[in-house]
Write a structure and sequence with these properties.
The protein has 309 residues and is an alpha/beta fold. Helix content is 30%, strand content 17%. It is elongated and about 65 Å long.
Length: 309
């Protein structure tokens, strides 16, 4: 069995060493033009040239949860595209979202501003019942985030493409229930995969439906920058329709230094770090899945190319 590794903008050595240790029966090597045909590939943002040179791949294992960039390529028709299920990312995502939510709810941003001015201030406590949190996308990451938020006794709504039943959540599904989900949520957390159907879903019309259409909604985007229509956000903030936003992902990354999001007082920017791949856990998961594929067993995380996740 031969495995080739192609990790754009990532150093491959530690991945190769880990895969060799986890799969001693395999030949594992870094891809360079002319590398022999492989059975499986471990990739991140591979070029089309890599795919073109490897038409016999049976498995393409992405080292992240998002596969939108990979699916833009012309892939071998018989190859299974496989994403990571979790590999240490869900707990990081839950931490990030809970931090952003609580910072907004407890108005810690105002305390921070007052502290810089040497002001001893007090904010009247707000009611959790008034801050229903809506989680868009109830996959592995979304479900973990929703359950973590529920531990702080916020009302939690969840929306997914197909119906789900998750204890402690009020679940909505499909296009027919999307507007009701938005209206029932004051804080919106986006964890959707990026597909043609979800591109631009965070737009003026949809964001204006938060909080029953009234002012004071809040956005946390930790999925993909292309979900957000960036030109719609600042007018919503300036009008008070939205109270603020925490953004970890952007249409262009790194976010250009001249971008207005950096300087807007109601926007918190972080550099796409809400949940990073944990290499050791990812290698173990990929190795287990490759063994299962070799034995003809079904595996989790196989991407449906037609639906985009």
């Amino acid at each position: 069995m031969r495995i080739t590794v192609c990790l754009t903008d990532n150093r491959p050595d530690a991945w190769i060493e880990g895969l060799r240790a986890a799969l001693p029966e395999a030949v594992v090597e870094n891809w360079r033009p002319g590398t022999p045909q492989a059975d499986h590939a471990v990739v991140w943002a591979p070029p089309q040239a890599f795919i073109d040179e490897q038409p016999k791949l049976r498995g393409i294992f992405n080292i992240g949860a998002g596969v939108d960039a990979l699916l833009k390529l012309k892939l071998p028709p018989e190859a299974q595209v496989v994403r990571l299920d979790d590999a240490g990312m869900s707990v990081q995502m839950a931490e990030y979202v809970c931090h952003a939510l609580i910072r907004h709810f407890r108005e810690f941003d105002i305390y921070e501003a007052d502290a810089r001015e040497g002001r001893w201030s007090f904010r009247k406590p707000r009611e959790r019942e008034d801050f229903a949190v809506g989680v868009m996308g109830l996959g592995v990451l979304g479900e973990r985030v929703a359950k973590a938020v529920a531990q702080f006794e916020f009302p939690v709504n969840g929306w997914s493409r197909s119906p789900k039943a998750i204890e402690g959540l009020r679940c909505f599904a499909g296009e027919a229930e999307f507007n009701a989900f938005l209206g029932a949520s004051r804080v919106l957390v986006n964890l959707l995969p990026l597909t043609e159907a979800t591109r631009g879903i965070l737009n003026r019309e949809n964001l204006s439906r938060l909080n029953g259409g009234g002012p004071g909604g809040y956005l946390i985007n930790v999925a993909r920058g292309a979900h957000l229509v960036e030109s719609d956000l600042i007018p919503l903030l300036d009008s008070g329709q939205l109270a603020g936003a925490t953004l970890d992902v952007f249409e262009v990354e790194p976010l250009p230094t001249e971008h207005p999001f950096w300087r807007h007082p109601k926007i918190t920017v972080t550099p796409h770090g809400s949940a990073r791949t944990v290499r050791e856990a990812s290698i173990a998961q990929i190795a287990d899945k490759i063994r299962a594929v070799e034995m003809g067993e079904p595996i989790a995380g196989v991407v449906g190319r037609e639906r985009g996740y």
